[in-house]
Amino acid sequence: MMSVTCSNLEFGRTRLEFAACGCSSNVSTNRVTAKNYGKGLLSNVNRRGRLWCCRGDAGRCRVFSTMTPEAFLNGVVAGPPPVLDLAEEKKGLPSMSDMFDVVSEDLLTLNKNLQSIVGSENPVLMSAAEQIFEAGGKRMRPALVFLVSRATAEIAGLKDLTKEHRRLAEIIEMIHTASLIHDDVIDESDMRRGKETVHQLYGTRVAVLAGDFMFAQSSWYLANLENLEVIKLISQVIKDFASGEIKQASSLFDCDVHLDEYLIKSYYKTASLIAASTKGSSIFSGVDNAISEKMYQYGKNLGLSFQVVDDVLDFTQSAEQLGKPAGSDLAKGNLTAPVIFALEKETKLRDIIDSEFCEMGSLEEAIEIVKNSGGIDRARELAREMANLAVENLHCLPPSPFRVSLEQLVNYNLERIK
């Protein structure tokens, strides 16, 4: 059995040993090691699970932390984490476009380059890729690259961004776009940002190939950066995407899913790319490893907080606001933080989920149970804890408009669930 040789994701005293930092490692296909520093404890429990594609039974791995969920989430050895008043200025909170105004010129340049960087070797694949670029989006991930790049460049004494900084932002957006194309296929989504999805327009086969094409093209540009540390870091993200989908598919309708498993899946699916974006930016600025690691932790905690907020909104916003039916994750059997917390108190919810909502009105009943059980409030607190950690990670940066925007982005995310 192969095991991981290194790690960069820690919660409290428990190190979850999967390759998050981009360094060379070998991971077995059915084991993730949770090691307690003092005891060297290894937990690996195989149990029944449902595969997404066939609802059959298959062995699957479970990941257990040796710490309590609170310690796991807080990322501290002892004592409560410092609580920052992130919402004290609820009124007048800037929009995301306002926060990104300090890098607006960088984003304009990125938008001009995105379609040309895709290439024109295959017109069909290029057209499919352009479909999602043209749909717009907030460009949050490349904006993070530019914000962290400029904040850390000041530390290193750089007067402007390097070509590597700019190419990294383009690569990150290409990888994100590729993942969206594949996600829409897996989720059978017909619309994204008010436009028809690639697979809806061109068919599933072309959509899958378009996503593969985008991943391959971004990998080629990544290799040409000729920075082995960043190449390993970003390459790991593509693997994490697949790992996250497999973890999610293997635990549908599983009422025994643990909070730490949910967080690991959320890291793979959402936070991994954001963490790699922020760390890679600082590496190209030439700052020391301690600051690069803080930027990685900022991206990781911000990404986890964003995912938890999205999962809360799945229960609290209307179908019109969401652009999809409320509770759609639960309907598909994807149990998120509000549901996991609710299951700790409501045994009836377990029975309903185990039935896979076979009775009329059972989904609506399950949603009401989640809302009334305190699960949503506990999920809000979880998002806030992650946000607190993200803000702390920024303390290594000198005061600047770029650091302010990075802090405001944390506030903006929490404001969505106020």
From TrEMBL:
GO biological process, one term: quinone biosynthetic process
Cofactor requirement: Mg(2+)
GO molecular function: metal ion binding; tRNA dimethylallyltransferase activity
Pfam family, one: polyprenyl_synt
EC numbers on record: 2.5.1.75
Group of enzyme by EC: transferase
Gene3D superfamilies reported in the protein's UniProt record: Farnesyl Diphosphate Synthase (1.10.600.10)
Signal peptide: none
UniProt keyword Transferase present: yes
InterPro entries recorded: Isoprenoid_synthase_dom_sf, Polyprenyl_synt, Polyprenyl_synt_CS
UniProt-listed CDD domains: Trans_IPPS_HT
Keywords of this entry: Isoprene biosynthesis, Magnesium, Metal-binding, Transferase
Domain of life from the UniProt record: Eukaryota
SUPFAM superfamilies: Terpenoid synthases
Family the entry assigns: Belongs to the FPP/GGPP synthase family.
The protein's name: Sporulation-specific protein 2
UniProt organism field: Salvia divinorum (Maria pastora)
Gene: SPS2
